[in-house]
Amino acid sequence: MYNTPVTEISLDGRSFYVKRDDLADPFLAGNKFRKLHALLQTQSDKLDKIISYGGTQSNAMLAIAAMCKKKSWHFTYYTKPLSDTQKNENCGNFFNAKKLGMEHVEIEEYYYKDFVASVRLSMDERMFVIDQGGAVEEAKLGLEVLAKEIRESGLDVMSLATPSGTGTTALFLALSLPEYRVYTTPCVGDSEYLKKQMSALHPLPKNLIILEPRKKYHFAKPYREFLEIQQKLLGTGVEFDLIYAPSMWMALLEQTQEEILYIHSGGVSGNESMLARYRQKSLL
Ligand SMILES: *Cc1c(COP(=O)(O)O)cnc(C)c1O
Question: Are the C-beta atoms of 56 and 269 separated by less than 8 Å?
Fold first, then answer.
């Protein structure tokens, strides 16, 4: 089993540790690498086909595509109809996922919700469906592996941090490591929405602390302050993603004081296409 390294960085006069899950693989990295652990342990000949759905910027989509390539499984990914610009992009997660062999299918906006609700109806035992963002109960297993690595790292740190989309990663990490404090911040919706999402998986443990961002940010939109903190972070020698990491780092700098082990959640592969959007908006 691959144990990712820990790097120490210095930011705004504070020292942080970073668990380098971004280094697991160029495409199959970060928390998606952890969430797919159970499937990665599955023998290739046990399955033929993986199905998933969601957005085309998705890091989960790219990670699943990389996994299916390794396993020689067919991967079909369903999305709402795309614009020609999206279809013809020559960098970013969608482009790379297709290069890894992903079959892309568009579903009309009108039928999309019903399609997603019924995606398991025609399934057989050699197919596996991964819900949007990889919010699967199986994720728990992979995060227990991460928890074990953190415990055995011997670091003198009792606080961890990782940003949330669905909250699956932060929640299962907090449940697996009750002796640590786990900070997270919502990147999709606000804290109330995140709590609702997490509560659907498991009652919230006391050691899970949700830091509310100072300002409301819309998911996956470009913001000047995101770019600023991302570039400041680049100066530490570690690259972070432009969608989730900026909010988490801003909240940590503003609302915490102790030494923290930041769990790198991956997503760096999406920066190229995200930076193109910053340029389009003349923010770069
Ligand atoms: C998916 C993702 C997250 C959010 O993970 P959840 O388990 O859905 O909360 C955070 N950071 C990156 C880079 C991601 O790709």
Answer: no
Compute the Cα dihedral for 106, 272, 183, 210 and give only its sign: negative
To the question of pTM greater than 0.90 for the whole model, the response is yes
Residue with tokens 């020689």: 72
Cα of 243 from ligand 1 centre, angstroms: 9
User: Which numbered atom of ligand 1 lies nearest the CA of 243?
Assistant: 13
Provide the number of structural domains found in the chain: 2
> CATH no. for residue 250?
3.40.50.1100
Q: Which two tokens stand for residue 160?
A: 């961890």
Strands 6-11, 14-19: parallel, antiparallel or unpaired by DSSP? antiparallel
Is residue 93 lining ligand 1, measured as CB closer than 6 Å?
no
- 46 CA distance to ligand 1 middle (Å): 27
Task: Say yes or no: CB of residue 31 within 6 Å of ligand 1.
Answer: yes
The answer on 64 and 171 residing in a single domain is: no
Q: Is residue 1 a part of any domain in this protein?
A: no
Residue nearest to atom 13 of ligand 1 (CA): 267
Q: What is the pLDDT along the chain (284 residues), one digit of tens a residue?
A: 569 999 999 999 999 999 999 999 999 999 999 999 999 999 999 999 999 999 998 999 999 999 999 999 999 999 999 999 889 988 899 999 999 999 999 999 999 999 999 999 988 999 999 988 766 677 899 999 999 999 999 999 999 999 999 999 999 999 999 999 999 999 999 999 999 999 998 999 999 999 999 999 999 999 999 999 999 999 999 999 999 999 999 999 999 999 999 999 999 999 999 999 999 999 98
φ, ψ for residue 259, nearest 5 deg: -75, 140
Task: Provide the residue range defining the domain that includes 41.
Answer: 34-134
CA-closest candidate to residue 200, choices 167, 230, 175:
167
**Residue 271 Cβ < 6 Å to ligand 1:** no
Distance 167 CA to ligand 1 centre (A): 8
